[in-house]
From TrEMBL:
Involved in DNA repair and in homologous recombination. Binds and assemble on single-stranded DNA to form a nucleoprotein filament. Hydrolyzes ATP in a ssDNA-dependent manner and promotes DNA strand exchange between homologous DNA molecules. Signal peptide: none annotated. GO terms for molecular function: ATP binding; ATP-dependent DNA damage sensor activity; damaged DNA binding. One of its GO terms (biological process) is DNA repair. It holds the Pfam family HHH_5. The gene is radA. InterPro entries: AAA+_ATPase, DNA_recomb/repair_RadA, DNA_recomb/repair_RecA-like, DNA_repair_Rad51/TF_NusA_a-hlx, Hlx-hairpin-Hlx_DNA-bd_motif, P-loop_NTPase, Rad51_C, RecA_ATP-bd. SMART domains: AAA, HhH1. It comes from Natrarchaeobaculum aegyptiacum. ATP binds at G107, E108, F109, G110, S111, G112, K113, S114. This is DNA repair and recombination protein RadA. The lineage of its organism: Archaea, Methanobacteriati, Methanobacteriota, Stenosarchaea group, Halobacteria. Residues 78-278, 283-343 form the RecA family profile domain. Belongs to the eukaryotic RecA-like protein family.
Length: 343
């Protein structure tokens, strides 16, 4: 979707347009459904101007309104499912991580959030018949967690049939126990993971916009972008926007960031995984320690929420929370040297 020129709207000059864009209102559609009171706060305009903006945006927008159940079904039929290669978890998720949605993986330190993002950066590249989406991955790394060595471990740790299928797909000659072929396969998987480190929250937001461009550039390539990982979504925001006074500001920025991330998933039929740390230390500012930070905004946007909990040794409990059309439930997995494995 081309960027809308917000200055076409009544009462919107360059400064107001910038404020609106910073707050995530970057299209006529997003303004058309905004509440005028919310706009007048965000963009520092009077109530009546805000009302005019919303009305004009409704005229300009292609808001759509109603669509038939069959159109919705048609779009849903395109949803891909990215397998974990752990039956119990795939069953819990109705087949795997869905494209066109944001999946939030939250849990305390060491619960395995980054292991999940790494494993999915591998699995997404596999051919469909072995649970992948035959795509590449964009990895926004805000905590310096990305480790190519883990990708190496996890590619080698794939089931033999998946390794064989990937080798055939990439025209690598050899078998799953052939070291030279495995090395070639690992290199090729690393080639299809585009990693960028985010140094602060603004940089992270910029990278999400870049991710959209990158996905666009690769749309017709052999391995289009089918997974966007943001690990961690919230760490920079949490560190930079400290104190109650900053809460609204933080939420507004996170809202815009999630909006950009969501677009990548929707425009390119890609899966999106974001991680979010919760602390086991009671923390007055962030409230309930078992609730992910980000509050309501994150709650609305992440359509699938997976809560990871440490259990004995390398065991982890994977809990599905509040999914729109799936039952809540739990599964067990292990975090092992060669990746995520069934219990
Ligand atoms: N090479 C490995 N072999 C076996 N287990 C590993 C290996 N690397 C990591 N792990 C397991 O993964 C855990 C760390 O998981 P991970 O880094 O994904 O946690 P996290 O939830 O992202 O934590 P944080 O919030 O601190 O980033 C370790 O405690 C360990 O149990």
């Amino acid at each position: 979707m081309p960027e809308a020129d917000l200055e076409e709207l009544p009462g919107v000059g360059p400064a107001t347009a910038d404020k609106l864009k910073d707050a995530g209102y970057d299209s006529f559609e997003s303004l058309a459904v905004a509440a005028p009171a919310e706009l007048s706060n965000t963009a520092d305009v009077g109530d009546s101007t805000a009302g005019d903006i919303v009305r004009a945006a409704r005229d300009a927008a292609d808001v759509g309104g109603f669509e038939t159940g069959s159109t919705v079904l048609e779009r849903r039929n395109k949803i891909g499912k990215l397998s974990w290669h752990i039956d119990e978890v795939d069953d819990l998720l109705g087949g795997g991580i869905e494209t066109q949605s944001i999946t939030e993986v939250y849990g305390e330190f060491g619960s395995g959030k980054s292991q999940v993002t790494h494993q999915m950066a591998v699995n997404v590249q596999l051919p469909q018949e072995v649970g992948g989406l035959h795509g590449s991955c964009i990895f926004i790394d805000s905590e310096d967690t990305f480790r190519p060595e883990r990708i190496d471990d996890m590619v080698r740790g794939l089931p033999d049939d998946a390794i064989a299928a990937a080798m055939e797909d990439r025209e690598i000659e050899g078998t799953p126990d052939d070291e030279a072929a495995l090395e070639e396969l690992v290199d090729s998987f690393l080639e299809y993971i585009h990693v960028a480190k985010a140094f602060n929250s603004n940089h992270q937001m910029l990278l999400a916009e870049k991710a959209k461009e990158l996905a666009g550039e690769h749309e017709d390539s052999e391995y289009p972008v089918k997974l966007l990982c943001v690990d961690s979504l919230t760490a920079h925001f949490r560190a930079e926007y400290v104190g109650r006074g900053e809460l609204a500001n933080r939420q507004q920025k996170l809202n815009k960031h999630l909006h950009d991330i969501d677009k990548v998933g929707n425009l390119y039929n890609a899966a999106v995984i974001v991680t979010n740390q919760v602390t086991s230390n009671p923390d007055a500012f962030f409230g309930d320690p078992t609730k992910p930070i980000g509050g309501n905004i994150l709650g609305h946007k992440s359509t699938f929420r997976i809560y990871l909990r440490k259990s004995k040794g390398d065991k982890r409990i994977v809990r599905l929370v509040d999914a729109p059309n799936l039952a809540d439930g739990e599964a067990v997995m292990r975090v092992e040297e060669d990746g995520l494995k069934p219990e």
